[in-house]
Design brief:
The protein has about 80 residues and is an all-alpha fold. Helix content is about 75%, strand content about 0%.
Length: about 80
């Protein structure tokens, strides 16, 4: 349970799911919208409940930004290539 309190872990799981669906050709616009909206709702709820845990480590606290950028770049490369 303590690993899920880290935003990096939740974002890593989300990005792996998106990439797995992308590379198996199951990621459509509707699927991406549903997953993105669901994840956004969950993150908003967890923010209101102050669920996140700060570790003081820059990579763990803000590393999810890199995961998001890498996943976005891979999606654009695969979709538009």
């Amino acid at each position: 349970m303590s690993l899920l309190r880290l935003p990096f872990t939740r974002w890593a799981i989300f990005c792996v799911i998106i990439l797995a669906l992308l590379f198996t050709d199951h990621l459509g616009v509707l699927t991406f919208f549903i997953l993105g909206a669901g994840f956004s709702i969950v993150e908003r709820y967890l923010t209101r409940k102050r669920f996140d845990k700060k570790t003081g480590n820059q990579f763990i606290d803000y590393g999810w930004i890199g995961l998001w950028l890498l996943t976005s770049i891979l999606i654009f490369i695969v979709v538009f290539h």
